[in-house]
């Protein structure tokens, strides 16, 4: 037994040793896994390279640089290929520009390999992913083709063959990308679009002129009336005359405005037919686009003019006085000349709420902070109020408020001058200018105010005035989520009234104003009345629906009875027939 106990103990010891070994192995494995994770993180950090954000200014500036050689190749290669004098007289300049553009093309490929793209909303910075993303695109193949050294054939054919470099034209996508990004960045997109279309027209005419001269050279100068005249004539031997004549012929043919010499040979007819088709299709499209652009440029003016015309018709129909009509028209003219016809809600409706709030904060927050009672408010409340500010414009002589009026809104002066005037409307006490505000106490409904919610002064616009308006309802709606801020605002307003001796302290201490309680009770009664009417209507609908259901059930029962009696009579008749047969 002792030996057996010893053996059991030894086995347990061995098992414990094995368990410890396994635990150590697992710990080592975990350590290795952690090391691998750390290595992966380090590798990922190493993989992160300098990446150009395609929405950054750096990328746009590089696009501007790349667009220059692309535009140069599209304009000059065809011209040099068709006009020999242009190529040979300035060969050194062309070689310098050609190989400079090639260097830019090569650098552009490196930039492409370092241009990031978004994956799950994040900019990818992994060099391997960037390379794979670029090499899988069609543009990569075109970029490689555009850099093939086809001009090595110069060594055998000579320098008079710039058409060998036509593969450089395959980078046209970079030029289009530059135009698209410029259109989104410029402050004058319509003007840019029109200029862009004019540029396309000029390039098409330019290429067509060069091809016309090349065809004339192949057929023979002066062989018929359609081709370019004989270059042996000094007047037509100059390079400038050759290009201008070809450009003139191309413009007349594509625009189909003037008459050109008729073609004589088959190839001439074919070229003219193609030109006419190009002119009809492309130029019709371009002219249509120009028309739509011009109409878009005038869309805001047309919409504004329609509003003015409808107001004029209404005033004439209602026989409004000429003075008032003139004031209304002047007010509209002021809005248009000062570019205040933009409906902010309509413009910003497509933006998410976060961006709307940021724009409103950027535009109005500094203005709102000038008001004394809002200076120490929390940021959330200020943002709520900023979104509720409404711009308003007043004409010369308009009263913003009169003494004794119920105050339902406060005003902040953005631009213009207002006068606090006597009851006669002439005597001026104070002139309010940009940044001033008034009416902030009346919208807080402070208990014990001697003036209540009534205006205490007459305020009149001296000239045209731009004001921001904040209504009492909007303020109270915003304050429902900020009860502490509401108490703080009321306390500030009470202190301001106490300084000006415009508060009845006994009434303020008395608590709630019975008038306010009466108003609340009245509101509750009206709400109860509406609920009762709705309940009565629902009960009537319920009873009518019950009656309809009962009627339908009664109809179903009668039909079932009819069908049941009919089936019984048929069964009885069938039972009687075999009995009669048996008797027979």
Q: Please, what is the average pLDDT?
A: 83
Q: State which percent range the strand residues make up.
A: 5-15%
Strand order in space, largest sheet: 3-10-5-8
Number of helices: 21
Structural domain tally: 3
Biggest beta sheet attributes: 4 strands, antiparallel
Number of strands: 10
Structural class: alpha+beta
Q: State the end-to-end distance.
A: 109 Å
Task: State the CATH superfamily name of the largest domain.
Answer: Jelly Rolls
CATH topology of the largest domain: Jelly Rolls
**Apparent shape:** extended
CATH architecture of the largest domain: Sandwich
Radius of gyration: 44 Å
Which CATH C-level class of the largest domain is it? Answer: Mainly Beta
Q: Helix fraction? A: 55-70%
Unreliable runs? 576-584
Description:
It catalyses: K(+)(in) = K(+)(out). Keywords: cAMP, cAMP-binding, Ion channel, Ion transport, Ligand-gated ion channel, Membrane, Nucleotide-binding, Sensory transduction, Transmembrane, Transmembrane helix, Transport, Vision. One of its GO terms (biological process) is visual perception. By secondary structure, the chain is α+β, with helices and mostly antiparallel strands. The chain has 3 domains: 45-185, no CATH class; 187-341, Orthogonal Bundle (Helix Hairpins); 344-509, Jelly Rolls, CATH 2.60.120.10. The chain is 66% helix and 7% strand. It has a 4-stranded antiparallel β-sheet with strand order 3-10-5-8. A hairpin with a 2-residue loop joins strand 1 (118-119) and strand 2. The radius of gyration is 44 Å and the shape is extended.
């Amino acid at each position: 037994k002792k030996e057996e106990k010893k053996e059991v103990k030894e086995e347990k010891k061995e098992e414990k040793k094995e368990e410890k070994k396994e635990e150590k192995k697992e710990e080592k494995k975990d350590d290795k896994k952690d090391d691998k994770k750390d290595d992966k993180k380090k590798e990922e950090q190493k993989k992160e390279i300098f990446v150009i954000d395609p929405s950054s200014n750096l990328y746009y500036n590089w696009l501007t640089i790349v667009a220059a050689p692309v535009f140069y190749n599209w304009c000059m290669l065809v011209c040099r290929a068709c006009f020999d004098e242009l190529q040979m007289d300035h060969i050194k300049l062309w070689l310098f520009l050609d190989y400079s553009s090639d260097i830019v093309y090569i650098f552009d490929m490196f930039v492409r390999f370092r241009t990031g793209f978004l994956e799950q909303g994040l900019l990818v910075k992994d060099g391997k992913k960037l390379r794979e993303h670029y090499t899988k695109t069609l543009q990569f193949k075109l970029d490689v083709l555009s850099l093939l050294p086809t001009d090595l054939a110069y060594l055998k054919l000579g320098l008079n063959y710039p058409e060998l470099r036509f593969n450089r034209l395959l980078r046209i996508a970079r030029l289009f990308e530059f135009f698209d990004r410029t259109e989104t960045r410029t402050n004058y997109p319509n003007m840019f679009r029109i200029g862009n279309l004019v540029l396309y027209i000029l390039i098409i005419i330019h290429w067509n002129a060069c091809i016309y001269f090349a065809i004339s050279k192949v057929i023979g100068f002066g062989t018929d009336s359609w081709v370019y005249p004989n270059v042996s004539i000094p007047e037509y031997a100059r390079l400038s005359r050759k290009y201008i004549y070809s450009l003139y012929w191309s413009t007349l043919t594509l625009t189909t405005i003037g008459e050109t010499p008729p073609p004589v040979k088959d190839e001439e007819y074919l070229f003219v037919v193609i030109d006419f088709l190009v002119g009809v299709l492309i130029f019709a499209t371009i002219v249509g686009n120009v028309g739509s652009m011009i109409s878009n440029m005038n869309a805001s003016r047309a919409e504004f003019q329609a509003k003015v015309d409808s107001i004029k018709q209404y005033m004439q129909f209602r026989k409004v006085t000429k003075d008032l009509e003139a004031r209304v028209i002047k007010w509209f003219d002021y809005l248009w000349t000062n570019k205040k016809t933009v409906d902010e809600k309509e413009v910003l409706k497509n933006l998410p709420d976060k961006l709307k709030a940021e724009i409103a904060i950027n535009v109005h927050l500094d203005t709102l902070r000038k008001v004394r009672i809002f200076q120490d408010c929390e940021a959330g409340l200020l943002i709520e109020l900023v979104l509720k500010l409404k711009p308003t414009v007043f004409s010369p002589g308009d009263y913003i408020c009169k003494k004794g009026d119920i105050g339902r809104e406060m005003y902040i002066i953005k631009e213009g001058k207002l006068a606090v005037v006597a009851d006669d409307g002439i005597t001026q006490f104070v002139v309010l200018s940009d940044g001033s505000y008034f009416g902030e106490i009346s919208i807080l409904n402070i208990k014990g105010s001697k003036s209540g919610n009534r205006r205490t002064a007459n305020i009149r616009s001296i000239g045209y005035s731009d004001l921001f308006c904040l209504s009492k309802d909007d303020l109270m709606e915003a304050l429902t989520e900020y009860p502490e801020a509401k108490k703080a605002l009321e306390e500030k307003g009470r202190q301001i009234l106490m300084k000006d001796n415009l508060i009845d302290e006994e009434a303020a201490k008395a608590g709630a104003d019975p008038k306010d309680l009466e108003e609340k009770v009245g509101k509750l009664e009206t709400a109860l009345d509406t609920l009762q009417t709705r309940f009565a209507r629902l009960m009537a609908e319920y009873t009518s629906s019950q009656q309809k259901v009962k009627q339908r059930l009664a109809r179903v029962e009668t039909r079932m009875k009819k069908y049941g009696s009919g089936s019984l009579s048929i069964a009885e008749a069938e039972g009687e027939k075999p009995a009669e047969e048996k008797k027979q």
